[in-house]
Every structure is written in structure tokens, then in C-alpha cells.
Amino acid sequence: MLDRIEKAMAAIGIDDASIVGTWKEIVELESYTRDPRAVEVLGTYLKSTFEAIGFNMEMHTYENAGPLLIGEMGEGDPSEGIILTGHMDTVFKTGTLAEIPFRVEDGRVYGPGVLDMKGGINLMIYISKLLKELGYTKPIKIVICGDEEHGHAYSDAAQKMQEACEGYKCAFNMETGLVDNSITVARKGRIEYEIKVHGKSAHAGANFADGINAIYELANIVVKINELNQKYEDVTFSVGIIHGGAISNAVPHLAEANVDIRYYNTEDGARIKNDIEAICSSPTIPGATAEASINSMFPPFMDTVNGSFYQLVDETSQMLGFGAVTPAHLGGSSDASYLTETGLPVLCSMGAKGEWNHTDREYAVIASAQERIKLITASILRLENKAL
């Protein structure tokens, strides 16, 4: 099988030079998650790229979020269909490219979003081309969202992705590949809370006793939230942002915090919400009030239906000489969570391998691109007429 795949790759010019060339083009179309129009420019580029391969493409646009691309190629029963999915938005603000330009160095590529996850998006192009060259005619669906990095807070992309995947056999989520050759079979869910505490302003010298200090009350809440880290197993509570007050000589009437919570199962999710609400509804300082609202949320990606799919990919990796893969359970969230909620077998971290997502050190290993193209293509061929 490997010989057949490599001959097809050579026939259509899939090599490191071509892969790095389109990688550069995609990275240089900056797509900061909170700049929807910039993400839309990349979406338009990808739409035309996949249309040139033979996909029928749709682009769903949103006022305050990047677009959602859905494309289909092939024919036949969707239950034999394969999904390649991912996101085109990044955490890097528009203009970062000037500070961290795309570059190739020592077998690695660098640049904003080069790994998370423009590397995976780039591979989707070549996997699709290769399957077409190999005469693969069963349904292939491309699902690429433009607002994953802020949790689809301003779009219905998560729901549309679930609807698009209904009835298909399985999905490869082309998120960041892991350098230890593991494949993600489970991820923690994520809830981001915004907590606002209201007190009463007063002059800190002349009327100190008349004030209700919102920062003091928020500090009490932060301590209580931190104590929840001891209550649960494999759940983390992290207060990442705090704001409060305007000047030092006034008792602050408002203080705010953002809390990141990670959890592995849906039952804990319900308990966590009850705990946060209980803490915020029980003020320590008389007269202070607090409210908690959810800014964004990912359900957990639970390893309930991925066993046979994972086993097939592991066998394929060994068959091709890439070695055994190992199952990973990660704390970071991804859209695999939404897809697996539908009962669809999903494997995550199937993109190019690398490290240091969301930092100026982010890189991807060039050699891993061809490896993953071959692995995923061979796995798709082996999935034909095979139940999972």
C-alpha cells in the first residue's frame, strides 16, 4: 500500500517543497480569531482551493466570528464517508506576522499558527488530492471552522458541524500532532466563567466605612474557587484574569475575574456549575453581590466510541513503518468534543507534529507532514467497507 501511495504522490507532485509552499501561503493569510474579516479572507482562499480539487463547497459567514466551510466530494452512502475537520483561526493578533514571519529552519517551519492549526489545514489539501489521484470515490467531507479559538461564542458553527457529520463513518480532527507519535482519544472539556462583583464606591480616606470593597469580595471568591481544586479528581480551576478599581484612593465598586475550568466528564460539568453559582450567591462581605456568566464552553471529548478506529490507525502506522501510536488524554479542548457527542468515532491531533502552540516558539516538523499524509490516506483506504 505504501508503494502505491508514494507513486501517486510523486505523480501529482506532493513533496516537501510543495507542502511548505502552501503552508507559507496559509500562514501568511493571518486569521486572528477575533478578526472575523481576516479569517474570512483565509476562508475564501481555502474554499477556492478545495473547489479546484473537486469539492462542492459552502461558506457560512457570521458578523462576529470567522466563517464555517463545509465541502463534499465523492458519492455513495454517507455511512462509508470520511470527515477531515479542523479550524482556520489562530490566537495570534493581526500584525503578528511582521514580528514572527514564516520561516524554515533546521527541518522545522515557524510562524503564527503554523502548527495550531494551519499545519493540519494544509495536510487536508494534500490528503484530498491524493485520494482523488488514487481513485477513491466514496464520500469525503471537509469541515473547517473559523472561530474555534474562542469557543464558537458568536456563531452556530458547533451545531452546524454536528449536523454536517451526522451519518458519517468517522472523522480525523487535524489538530496539532504530538511529537511523541501519540494520538488524542480524549480531551478535557472547558468552561470559561466571567465573574463580576458589585460593591459600593466611597472615598478611601473620608468615607472608608461607607464603602463595600468589590476587590476584597472577589478575593474571597477566588480563594473559594481555588479550594475546588481539592474537591474533584482530574478537574482544574484557574483564575487567569482579574480587574478591579480605577484609582487607589477610592473603595472599588466593581471587580471582575475570568476563570478557566477543565474537566473530563459531563457529570462533573453539572456539579461545577452548581459550585460556582453557590460561591457567587453567598457573599462574605455584607452588601456585596456577585454574578457568574459563561463566556465560552467546550464539552469533554470522551473516549467512548473511538476504540476500533484507534486500533486501525495504530495498525496502519506500524504497517507503514511509522511505529506504534499511543493514546493521549489531553487537557486542551478541541472541536472533537462536539463531533463525538453525535456518536461519531473521532481521532484528534492528526495534523503535522510540533510543539509550543499559542507562543512565539510555535513550530512544526516538516517531515511529519508527508508521514501524516501517508498515514491518514492509508487509514482511509483500509476503512473502506469496514465497520467501526
The fraction of residues in strands falls at 25-35%
Kindly report how far apart the N and C termini lie.
21 Å
Average pLDDT rating: 96
Strand order of the biggest β-sheet:
1-2-6-3-7-17
Total domains, how many?
2
Q: Remind me, CATH topology of the largest domain?
A: Aminopeptidase
Number of H/I helices = 11
Largest sheet: 6 strands, mixed
How many strands?
19
Helix and strand sequence: HHHEEEHEEHEHEEEEEHEEEHEHEHEEEH
Shape: elongated
CATH architectural group of the largest domain = 3-Layer(aba) Sandwich
CATH homologous superfamily of the largest domain - what is it? Zn peptidases
| Alpha-beta classification | alpha/beta
Question: So what's the CATH class of the largest domain?
Answer: Alpha Beta
- Helical residue percent? 25-40%
* Residue windows where pLDDT falls under 50 for at least 5 positions: none
CA-based gyration radius: 23 Å
Could you explain how this protein is built, in words?
- α5 (118-133) packs across α11 and α9 (307-319) crosses α11.
- The protein starts with a helix and ends in a 5-residue tail after the last helix.
- It folds into 2 domains: 2-188 and 301-383, Aminopeptidase (3-Layer(aba) Sandwich), CATH 3.40.630.10; 194-298, Alpha-Beta Plaits, CATH 3.30.70.
- The longest helix has 18 residues, at 36-53.
- It is elongated.
- Strands 1-2-6-3-7-17 form a 6-stranded mixed beta sheet, with helices on both faces. A 5-stranded mixed beta sheet has the order 4-5-19-18-8.
- By secondary structure, the chain is an alpha/beta fold.
- The mean pLDDT is 96.
- It is 35% helix and 26% strand.
- The chain has 11 helices and 19 strands.
- The relative contact order is 0.18.
- It has helices at residues 2-11, 16-27, 36-53, 96-99, 118-133, 157-165, 214-227, 266-280, 307-319, 336-340, 366-383, and strands at 56-60, 66-73, 82-87, 103-105, 108-110, 140-146, 170-173, 177-178, 182-187, 189-198, 202-203, 236-244, 250-251, 254-263, 289-298, 326-330, 346-347, 353-355, 363-365.
